[in-house]
C-alpha cells in the first residue's frame, strides 16, 4: 500500500433504517488497520458522513486537510516514481543487451571479426 495514499473513514453514528438504527458499514470493514494508511471516524451516520453543512465541521476539516496534503505532495511523489521507473527501464535494457551478447562468440582477431556475413571478406578488400 506504500504506493498509494489511503485515508479510511467510518461512520460513528447509527443510521435510521426505518425499523431500526444500525451501522451500515462497521469500523473494521470501513477502515481496516493497514500499514501506511490513515483512519478517522466521522461524527455522522452513513448518509451524512459525506454531507458537510459547513466548513467548520471537524469531519470536513479532516477530509480537506488530507486532500490538501496529498495534492501538495503529489508532484514530488510523481517525480520520484517517474525517476524510479526510468531507472528500472534502463536496467532492463542493459540486462536484455547483456543477454543478447551472451550468444555471440568472440572473434580471435580483428580480421576474423571483419569477415562476417554482414561485411565483405577482408582478403578481397585488401587485394
From TrEMBL:
Protein name: Uncharacterized protein
Source organism: Blastomyces parvus
